[in-house]
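User: Thanks for the earlier help. One more: Arylsulfatase A-like enzyme. Can you show the sequence and predicted structure together?

Assistant: Of course, both are below.
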Amino acid sequence: MRPNIVIINPDQMRWDYASCYGHPFIETKNIDRLAAIGTRFERAFSASPMCGPSRTSFLTGKYPLEHGIRQYGGTYDPALPNALSILGNAGYVRGLWGKDHCFKGDVIGRLYDEGEDICLGIMSKHPLYINAWDSASLDPASEWNITKRLTDAGINFIKKHANSDRPFFVTFNYQDPHPFFTCPEPYSSIFNPDQFELSENFRRGPAVGEIRRLTHWRIHSNEINMPIDSLKRAMAIYCGQIRYVDDQVGRIIDILRDLNVLDNTIILFWSDHGEFMGDFGVTHKIPAFFECLIRVPLVLWDPTGRVPRGVHQEMTELMDGMATVLDLCGLPQPAGSHARSAAAGGAPRTEVYADAGMLVRQPADPIPGLRIKGAMAPTPFGPGSMLRTREWKICLYAEDRGELYDLQADPFETTNRFDDPELVKLKLELMQRLAKRMMCFGRMPEDLPVGDLK
């Protein structure tokens, strides 16, 4: 029988907010535990810094440029090729607990056999959520406290199917640590705001060369006036939310072990995109390609051992994670997928691509009087694309200034060198390469099939 599959997907978790990725005090012992026995992908990147586009890419192997999902929520046609259909056709019983955020219509009963598809958005009706940066402790009895409840239900699904004659697939798609930044005790008081320092790229206003969409979000969210103590409180709660998720990771690993199925179950931990959390003086996310938004945690437990264990240092795209899972199960990729399996032993990626933003014009100037606490219109407006190598990142936008960052000398992306006359040749080379990727719907030109001349 094929191996079982467990996917764990916290929403909006930064790559650097886990101990195994270098966070100094968060103590994510269960994510670390998974990394210790499996494979931690050091350089993993999302196809988009927005929820629906990223998740759709994960399940289709296509970039937003091709699959067409560019807003936060997903509206992908479930009849089109996707990993869930492949799993169902292979005999997997499929469960979802949490937000689907990918497909149009009701997914339970169509792409999942059991589960609960629930999305809380930004909890905009919570009485303590007034400003974009707000955070609070959550009443354990609150309707918004769903992380443990979803885990309970998913664990019951695992117990039900662990010894059946069909393999199971279950995905835990958590709300945490997405804003509104809130979690119940004891998680909301684990961390003291005084433990946190501002990032090196924190700023109250625009720097030379700043993209317009970031300037607009800082003003529209009123985070130009965000109190520093409130930001540090949000950081503390955000870490608490991650610890809440981390405890669920431990519960899932433990039940798989106790049922004696851990050695026949693939586990993939990933997040769809990151979070500003104070970088550049803001919170939340926008359609831009800063490291805090586009770089993500990705950890795999492969019981077959085909994927080398330890730290995978090569560049990886999130869609490669699902491609690897399918490969380990002996299953094909969705038709048209551009993802690469880490178990296939092919040449490593030397660059990653991403794109984002609705095909709507970003305003030329901030909208007077507009105050929004979530990254709603016009925040997601304006398409853009990114090409990132180990050393450089270039970003082009339809109606915004370009960006070019020296990631070795400037890892916090404080200086946009797009207009640096000393880098004209390099910029042209990177722009040409990015244009070629866009012509190929994001895929590498070298991966295009050879035409049949007969």
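User: Great, one quick takeaway?

Assistant: The longest strand covers residues 310-317.
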